[in-house]
């Protein structure tokens, strides 16, 4: 149980850090031409029209961040006996981590599908960049966090259970 809790806390924290870096950086998409290179992120400059798929990706990524933060908070509270809540902190952490993973996956699928279907120009090469990939990494890390938290929940001793 301790190993699962520690690994869940590690993967949850890494997922939180990776989504925060992805949200705050501007290297989601790169376009390179013969004499220029441009990059863009989820936060376009002021005064420009923001497409709907960017708004959806922003909203779901922020929601995933909040779910992931709650998951990590429940895991931290389970490590400190004086802060430990009654009930099932591992189960709550697992539910929050899976909600974060689902939100992140939907956000990334929306962004990927919309960017993938945009028209291409013959002299401009476009590709996804490292901030985009960090978004996907955070979704995978939260799936691991949810699984490890669920394993910790299932592996903990039940009240009234006597070991032989």
Automatic annotation (TrEMBL):
It is found in: Cell membrane; Cytolytic granule membrane. One of its GO terms (biological process) is inflammatory response. Keywords: Cell membrane, Cytolysis, Inflammatory response, Lysosome, Membrane, Transmembrane, Transmembrane helix. Pfam families: PMP22_Claudin (PF00822). One of its GO terms (cellular component) is cytolytic granule membrane. Belongs to the PMP-22/EMP/MP20 family. This is Protein NKG7. It comes from Callorhinus ursinus. The lineage of its organism: Eukaryota, Metazoa, Chordata, Craniata, Vertebrata. The gene is NKG7.
